[in-house]
Amino acid sequence: MRWPRIIFLSIVFLIVGAFLHYTLPQRDIVRVTDTEIIRQDFSGLNRIFYAQGDSGNAATDNRDLRLINTVMRNGEVLVYRNEDTGFGWPPYFKLNSADVQAEAANFISTAADPQWVAVTHYGWRSRLLSTYPNAVSMRAVDGPDVRLIPWLNIAILLFMAVLVFMAWRIWERFEDRVIDPLRDRAAVRWAKTRDWLSGRR
After folding, report:
1. Where are the domains of the chain?
2. I need a surface site. Which of 18, 58, 63, 191 has the fewest CB within 10 A?
């Protein structure tokens, strides 16, 4: 009975971890190299990673998508999409993608004279599915070595940990008061039934 529980809890942990990793805000320090608008096709596989059609866009199989091209200090290229989230999920309530695109264009710099920018985003980059993390906001920073503490993520994770602890304590009390007595009564009844079937009364 131990291994099924471990496997089940591991699967739940992986699903919750992936959900939080996708949804919670992350920040990268990058240099903006270009901004562009492409025509993006949406298939059944990647449609869930983009904003819905009612977030300021028509519900079509393809539409214009704002992109922000960036480079990290180590030379790794990062591409962000820039679209409104509306009032759907995740709850960023982003309605200013045009302003973010203008900020990104203003931050464009060269390797010789870099302007480092902290990009707050959520989501994943998948070349296979043609998905990009969504840039929520941008701000200039002093350099690529700036330390950014994710206070919001810490607060959310602490709140979730408190909820999980409270749910665990409630379940423990429910188990002690309801499940354990039921299990004990069932064991006693089974023992009496077994004795009766074997002829012992």
Report:
1. 25-148, 155-197
2. 58
Distances (CA, A) of 56 to 68, 141, 184, 193: 19, 30, 59, 68
Determine the Cα–Cα distance for residues 128 and 4; give it in Å rounded to an integer: 33
Task: Quote the tokens at residue 69.
Answer: 């091209």
In whole angstroms, give the CA distance from residue 132 to residue 97: 15
What is the CATH number that goes with domain 25-148? Answer: 2.40.50
Asked whether residue 194 carries a pLDDT value surpassing 70, the answer given is yes
Question: What average pLDDT does the chain have?
Answer: 87
Instruction: Compute the average pLDDT of residues 39-61.
Output: 67
**How far is residue 83's CA from residue 51's CA, in Å, rounded to a whole number?**
7
Strand-pairing partners, residue 30, are 117
Dist. CA 157–CA 15, nearest whole Å: 15
Residue 53, Cβ neighbours under 10 Å: how many? 14
Q: What is the DSSP letter of 133?
A: P
